[in-house]
Amino acid sequence: MIKKNILFLFLLLLMSCSSKEEGIYTPKPTSLKIPELFQQKLIEPVIPTNNPLTEEGIALGKKLFFDEILSKDNTQSCASCHNPQKAFTDENRFSEGVDGKIGNRNSMPLFNLAWNFDERFTWDGKETSLESQALEPVRNPIEMHSNWINVAQKIKNHAEYPFLFQQAFGNIKIDSTLITKALAQFERTLISGNSKFDQYLLGKAQLTSEEKNGFDVFMDETRGDCFHCHGSNNNPLWTDNKFHNNGLDAIFTDLGLGKITGDPNDNGKFKSPSLRNLKFTAPYMHDGRFATLEDVINHYSTGLKNSSTIDPLMKSVNKGGVNLSQKDKDDLKTFLLSLSDNDFINNLEFQE
Length: 352
Prior knowledge:
By secondary structure, the protein is mainly alpha-helical. It is 37% helix and 1% strand.
């Protein structure tokens, strides 16, 4: 009789364990869709070991990215300032927050972020991961002006989110860490690698004579000399993801990287943005001061200003710039526009 009772209790224990195991959902691991040219030219993207990509995590991050629940008054989402149709920036020099306030930096486009090997994000490099970057806009008083305790509570009370978080991360308390992990997973999937110039490098498209000359200007150290900071046919990111003083100001009103490092030698330095998708990302520079590509090219041609931290790559600063001919300016613009990726901005996987 005693043996029977022990056996019965053992079976009950097994049934209990089995029932609990059936209730645990395991998210499906996935990987990035890496363009052919990136596979040829770049090393593997950066995926944190503590935030691996899963189908459920990416889907959750996408839903959160477009959800105004992250803002104080439920009026703004990440997409409010990072519009897919604008290569995930907006058309404003400075974006407006929920309280109508504006900052002093232009909203950065979002794509190919998984290849930022130094892991320094934003114009001044103050964020050292996508996850930490995602913390900032929610609590920033000139952006969403909320706080993470309130946001987490709203998400816990939501009809759908608790189930989605459980699928993506298991039975873990919903908080800012999980929310930003999901956002970062989605942001890493934003890959742009199908421009006309990409197709040209793959032997699948032909450039016009103007585009070819524009690329030559871009690569020629005696003309445009752009490639040191902005990539080349061997760096399809079209940025070095480094920080430079590119001669915008003789006197700094925004210290950029210098404010973060505290090193005066970094004053006036800002991240080199990618030159992909310039067709969609005006205005330009960290403060959006240039409305057009012509303005940008004219700056490097004749508008450089000297200062104590001017980048050594601005070799022609004493002449005001590289002094391009009008033909070279026009062709350089034509080449830059060949880096536009219409498939990226129309990709339904990246839209609400």
